[in-house]
Amino acid sequence: MSDRTAAVTRETAETEIEVTLDVDGDGDSTVDTGIGFFDHMLDSFSTHGLFDLTVHCDGDLEIDDHHTVEDVAITLGEAFEEALGEKRGIVRFADRKVPLDEAVASVVVDVSGRPYYEFEGEFSQSEVGGMTSHMAEHFGRSLATNAGLTLHCGVDGENAHHEIEALFKGLARALDDATRIDERRSDVASTKGEL
């Protein structure tokens, strides 16, 4: 199997970001976005997806968390797109349902090359640890758009920390499943011959 890694940078007037990704990693991460809870979610994403991940972001947190979370998701999506290349041999489809105490998140993904995002549910509190809860939904949308994913997500629960963490874990597990190599397949999983 070829090396499925990427290093992507993004620099705007709002953020400066460096991301490295190894899709076939061990779950090692080094994350610093300036938002403690978001760092925790990205660490969890790395751990549960077995992705080696580094994220360094210097964002305009004096304004709010929006640009930091959105731009990290954009950059991470670009890293997945680059690392997966032609997507030869990948499983392509996956779904996961992940609980965290009273909360449960569901994630269905198609690594299709066609960006689409749907989200169902609400977060029970408006903010967790310096991160606006609705930015977890926006993270998924920005990731899907830039990684070329069809992504359907949902959450239910009573505690936004649990809801968001279950969502990030579910996303990690589904992406790990969908990006695995199926040894029976030498081409892409599409009748079109490309993804």
Automatic annotation (TrEMBL):
It catalyses: D-erythro-1-(imidazol-4-yl)glycerol 3-phosphate = 3-(imidazol-4-yl)-2-oxopropyl phosphate + H2O. GO terms for cellular component: cytoplasm. InterPro entries: IGPD_sf, ImidazoleglycerolP_deHydtase, ImidazoleglycerP_deHydtase_CS, Ribosomal_Su5_D2-typ_SF. Its EC number is 4.2.1.19. Pathway: Amino-acid biosynthesis; L-histidine biosynthesis; L-histidine from 5-phospho-alpha-D-ribose 1-diphosphate: step 6/9. The keyword Amino-acid biosynthesis applies. Keywords: Amino-acid biosynthesis, Cytoplasm, Histidine biosynthesis, Lyase. It is found in: Cytoplasm. The keyword tRNA processing does not apply. It is an enzyme of class 4 (lyase). GO terms for molecular function: imidazoleglycerol-phosphate dehydratase activity. Transmembrane segments: none annotated. Its main location: cytoplasm. One of its GO terms (biological process) is L-histidine biosynthetic process. It comes from the Archaea. PANTHER family: IMIDAZOLEGLYCEROL-PHOSPHATE DEHYDRATASE (PTHR23133:SF2), IMIDAZOLEGLYCEROL-PHOSPHATE DEHYDRATASE HIS7 (PTHR23133). Belongs to the imidazoleglycerol-phosphate dehydratase family. This is Imidazoleglycerol-phosphate dehydratase. The lineage of its organism: Archaea, Methanobacteriati, Methanobacteriota, Stenosarchaea group, Halobacteria.
